[in-house]
Amino acid sequence: MYIFGSMFAHWIDRNSSILCPFSFLFQVCQLMVMFFVILVIYSIWTIFFCTIMGYLYDCFLYVSVICVTVTLVR
User: Fold this and answer.
1) Which of 2, 13, 45, 73 is 20 to 30 Å from the Cα of 36, by its Cα?
2) Helical packing angle, 26-53 and 56-73, nearest 10°
3) pTM here?
4) Cα-to-chain-centroid distance, residue 52
5) Which parts of the chain span the membrane according to its record (predicted)?
6) 6 in helix, strand or coil?
7) What is the mean pLDDT of residues 12-37?
């Protein structure tokens, strides 16, 4: 999961000039694209993980708390 995210981030970094043609919006656009990609990957992973567990709501809260905690600690 982490390796896939890193590879995707590297790909976006290399192709950002195509995705974000205006240089003054480059940084903002890059951040927005990264955020959107992370959100999509996180949502897919959470739904997949929680479907296996069978407790979608509880599991989503559980994963969210872990992710927030990890983000704050880092």
Assistant:
1) 73
2) 140
3) 0.36
4) 21
5) 24-48, 54-73
6) helix
7) 67
Cα distance between residue 70 and residue 6, in whole Å: 17
What are residue 57's phi and psi, to 5 degrees? -70, -50
Q: Token pair of 64, please? A: 């969210």
Residue 73: both structure tokens together: 């600690």
Q: Tell me: the pLDDT tens digits for 28-48?
A: 777 788 888 888 888 887 777
Predicted pLDDT of residue 10: 64
Give how far the C-alpha of residue 17 lies from the chain's centroid of Cα atoms, to the nearest Å.
Answer: 20
- Distances 32 to 13, 35, 69 between C-alpha atoms, Å: 12, 5, 22
Rounded Cα gap, residues 33 and 31, in angstroms = 6
